[in-house]
Amino acid sequence: MAADLSSNARGGAARPRAAREADPPGLLDRAPSLAATLAQRLRGEILSGRFAVGDRLPTEQAMAASYGVSRPIVREAIGRLKHDGLVTTRQGAGAFVAERRDVASFRLDVTDFGNAAEIRNIVELLMAVESAATGHAAIRRSTAELASIEDRLRAMQAAIDRGETGVDEDVAFHRAIIEASGNPFFRDLSEFLDRRVRTFIRAARANTARRHGLTQVVQREHEAIFEAIAAGDAAAARQAAENHLVQAANRLAVYLSRGG
Fold it and tell me: What CATH number does residue 198 fall under?
């Protein structure tokens, strides 16, 4: 079974049976993301019942030897499973199958930021989340929340005036808008996306803007978002947020085409 998985991972034809049988059992192929591959393998073994609830997983050393990977790869794979709620870890005791294996989890593994189709999919997801949240913020924001958004807008301008990228201020600006949407699920999903992909996209955009004199263009997009929220115009707020993300995607494409 493991040998078949290895040949599939390479996308080539299956090797003769004798050659497959000569492979160490369970050895993982040298794929681009070994931790993700190992995590997926272990996830399947847990969900299939090979490891029951409460069972202790093999030691890092044992898994490293069994799958032909390093111990840091094993630790990263276990970290992914812990994030998904499938395993728990105990200091000095190891990793154990968690009690609530039926808890649904969401993972967004972006493997290639240079892939145009992958970037398009990410931007579409961000657009769906941020445009909707921005529209809600225009209607639901309080006076204090509007002031907080404006403060962050001004902080971005101050960073620009100092010759900085303003990425941190940018993240804070959008986070304040998400908070003003009044929906905690928007906040949770936005925080998830922040950890996974948004910081990279904004950093790329900021670098491109700085190099090509577009910093103030980006800031005007932020100003349009703020003005729509301040006016209580949900449709205009959604449109301004959507336009900002489309333009950010275009700037990201320039960044990637020039190798960063």
Answer: 1.20.120.530
Same domain for 211 and 161? yes
Give the SS3 label for residue 209.
helix
Burial 53-69 (b: 16+ CB within 10 A, else e): eeeebbebeebbbbbbb
Tokens linked to 137: 């913020």
- Residues 35 and 81 sit within 8 Å (Cβ to Cβ): no
User: What is the pTM for the complete model shown?
Assistant: 0.58
Tell me which residue range forms the domain holding 239: 116-257
Rounded Cα distance, 181 and 173, in Å: 13
SS3 33: coil
Tally: H helices and E strands in the chain: 12, 2
CB atoms under 10 Å from CB of 85, counted, come to 15
Average pLDDT over residues 69-78: 91
258 to each of 18, 84, 112, 251, 253, how far by Cα in Å?
Answer: 47, 36, 16, 11, 9
Band the pLDDT of 99: cuts 50, 70, 90: confident
Which of 182, 179, 162 has its CA nearest to residue 171? 179
107 with 76: CB under 8 angstroms?
A: no
User: What's the chain's average pLDDT?
Assistant: 78
Give the pLDDT of residue 111.
55
